[in-house]
Specification:
Elements lengths: L15 H20 L3 E2 L5 E3 H4 L4 H6 L3 E3 L10 H6 L2 H8 E5 L4 H10 L8 E10 L11 E10 L5 H17 L3 E7 H10 L6 H8 L2 H15 L4 H11 L5 H11 L4 H18 L6 E4 L13 E7 L8 E6 L13 E7 H11 L4 H4 L4 E3 L4 H16 L4 E3 L6 H10 L4 E4 L2 H5 L3 E5 L5 E4 L1 H9 L1
Parallel strand pairs: 1-5, 7-8, 12-13, 12-14
Antiparallel strand pairs: 2-4, 3-4, 5-6, 6-11, 7-9, 9-10, 10-11, 14-15, 15-16
Length: 454
């Protein structure tokens, strides 16, 4: 007996209805990106490991899916190396390529390779899948789509403001209430500086970024394990638990970070973004959150994260500024800032809250029943006119029993069915049935289009 087929853990199949929902998500995000002047690009699913490694921190590197070299991948490897069972070392010799972990690093590589063709500032968006060798769990997948927008070649904080407007506009269109959280890596660097642990900024941010997931006590345990002093940990507590309005938090930070030029610069940047957004109407709340650290090493300025308020799920959008990412590819001095919508998590949120518009998920609106060759031939001109009017229409391909064809219409939630028999053909009309109400009416081609179009 053949083994039952399966798919890898952390991946999913999507039905036609689910794909309609996903396309609604992609199209909504794409429309807002276009509204703000972003242009679309695509990059390969796989990149050279030299492009990917070292860009996401030690933990990120462990989550890269590596692609085994084709051909004789044992060539050049000694028996001692094979017997050592050193997985990391062997992978570096077996594998030259890997599946992309995100869209930002491939984008930085793209900018460097195409610098002579690009007009700066360059506003690009990208909607493609990414892969992470993570442990699958609710809201966390090994294969998932990201919907990124980035601006490179501009230091202006107006870019951060516009990205927050984009976030607000997208979630307003979806009808999802969110909290937009903002912080700045310069503030975090300033905090590390004033507690006497400036050289441990990466360890501190990686630990703080886990606060929501593991709690304060476990964050402190992790900080101790990284060699951060007890005195520094105690100084850190009131800072990361700072409360109050955004204005109150900024005022407190100016006092706390008065001895840190870097920290004060971060406060100034946050203040500009928050003050500018205060003067623009946005539907969703925006909060300065000092526990937001975004573990990725390449962020250097403002950082963002978006949480859905009515569903228990991880962040649905994230991003930030990265002043030196292209520098690792030999192109220094190019600043960038970007956001990434997590399409798969948004999909789950919209499902849980039942927020999909009916027209977004409905497919075929009109089905022509097929009673035989003569009736099918008569139906074709009606079908053609319906499609020309933009009505998603189909004809049942086989002259099966009426019950089977109506069951097909019900299974696909087709709202209208056109029935053609001898009397309908004699009058050059069709019997149009509303599948929701059960009402039937003899109509011409023009009347059919008018009714179904409504």
């Amino acid at each position: 007996m053949a083994a039952k087929p399966s798919i890898p853990k952390g991946t999913r199949d999507f039905s036609p209805v689910e794909m309609a929902k996903r396309n609604y998500i992609f199209n909504t995000i794409r429309d807002v990106y276009h509204l703000y002047g972003f242009q679309q690009i695509e990059t390969p699913s796989m990149e050279m490991l030299t492009t990917l490694m070292g860009k996401y921190g030690e933990e990120g590197d462990k989550l890269l899916f590596k692609i085994q070299n084709s051909g004789d991948y044992f060539k050049g490897i000694t028996d001692d190396e094979l017997l050592s069972r050193n997985a990391a070392k062997l992978a570096s010799k077996f594998c030259e390529k890997g599946l992309r972990y995100d869209l930002t690093v491939p984008f930085a590589r793209y900018v460097v390779m195409h610098r002579d063709e690009i007009t700066f500032p360059f506003k690009r968006y990208q909607i493609q899948p990414v892969w992470r060798a993570d442990r699958p769990q609710k809201g966390r997948y090994r294969e998932f789509y990201q919907c990124d927008a980035d601006v490179v070649g501009s230091d202006s904080l107006l870019n951060e403001v516009e990205l927050m407007q984009i976030v607000d506009a997208v979630f307003s269109k979806f009808g999802i209430r969110v909290s937009i959280k903002i912080n700045n890596r310069k503030i975090l660097s300033g905090i590390a500086e004033i507690i006497g642990e400036a050289d441990k900024i990466v360890d501190i941010t990686v630990a703080i970024d886990k606060l929501d997931k593991i709690g304060l006590d476990n964050v402190n345990v992790e900080l101790r394990a990284k060699g951060i002093s007890e005195d520094a940990i105690q100084k850190l507590q009131p800072i990361i638990l700072l409360s109050g309005t955004n204005i109150e938090k900024l005022a407190t930070l100016k006092t706390i970070l008065s001895e840190s030029q870097t920290g004060l610069k971060g406060v100034e940047e946050c203040e500009f973004i928050l003050n500018t957004l205060d003067n623009i109407h946005i539907d969703n709340e925006i909060e300065l959150d000092l526990t937001l650290a975004r573990g990725l090493n390449y962020y250097t300025g403002a950082i963002f994260e978006v949480k859905a308020l009515d569903v228990e799920i991880g962040s649905v959008t994230g991003g930030g500024r990265y002043d030196n990412l292209t520098g690792v590819f030999g192109m220094s001095g190019v600043s960038g800032v970007g956001i990434s919508f997590g399409a798969d998590r948004i999909f789950d949120v919209l499902n849980q809250l039942d927020l999909y518009p009916k027209e977004a998920v409905n497919g075929t609106r009109l089905l022509f029943v097929n009673f035989g060759d003569k009736e099918a031939a008569f139906a074709i001109p009606f079908l053609t006119k319906a499609r020309a009017a933009g009505i998603c229409s189909e004809i049942y391909p086989d002259s099966s029993k009426m019950k089977k064809q109506m069951s097909y219409a019900n299974a696909k939630a087709i709202p209208f069915v056109a029935i053609i028999g001898e009397s309908e053909m004699n009058e050059n009309k069709v019997m149009l049935k509303n599948m929701e109400t059960g009402d039937q009416k003899l109509v011409s081609a023009e009347e059919l289009v008018a009714i179904v179009s409504k």
